[in-house]
Amino acid sequence: MKISLLPNKSREYEKAETKAEESLRVIAQLTAVDGAVLLTENADVLAFGAKIKPVNVDYKPTEAIVSEPFETSQEELKELFHLGGTRHQSAAQFVYDQKEAFAIVASQDGKLSIIYWDFDSKNVRVIQHAEYIFA
């Protein structure tokens, strides 16, 4: 069932929304391939199945500020290995190296993590259970 936030959408808006949904389905299928899917800010696919090499091989982030998208969620500093495996480690390294990028890590059980650089704290931040943001 599709829920609309705009009850009287224009025909052009509905076409754009349908096209966006189709694009997201294709992108979702690309995530079945092992490796990263790289997108532009317009959701154009640059690569999939990519292996990202760290820029800064001398530094690997070991900790991240972690929270969840719930009102009662408390931030806490956690070691990265507690968050997940290679996907989380690679995404955290990528975000650390790029600073203005973010990563969405999808686990096989359907859980999403959003990983980004926080310029204020100068640390990697992780929103766990981000799938609830989109529910």
Topology as a string of helices (H) and strands (E): HEEEEHEEE
What amount of the residues lies in strands? 25-35%
| General shape | globular
- Major β-sheet annotation: 5 strands, mixed
For the biggest β-sheet, the strand order reads 4-3-7-6-5
Give the key terms.
globular, 135 residues, alpha+beta, 7 strands, 2 helices, 24% helix, 2 domains
What does this structure look like?
- The chain is α+β, with helices and mostly antiparallel strands and 135 residues long.
- It has two helices and seven strands; from the N terminus they run H-E-E-E-E-H-E-E-E.
- It has two domains: 51 residues, no CATH class; 84 residues, no CATH class.
- The strands form two sheets. It has a five-stranded mixed sheet with strand order 4-3-7-6-5, with helices on one face. Strands 1-2 form a two-stranded antiparallel ribbon.
- A hairpin with a 4-residue loop joins strand 6 and strand 7.
- The longest helix is centred in the first third of the chain and has 20 residues.
- It is globular and about 50 Å long.
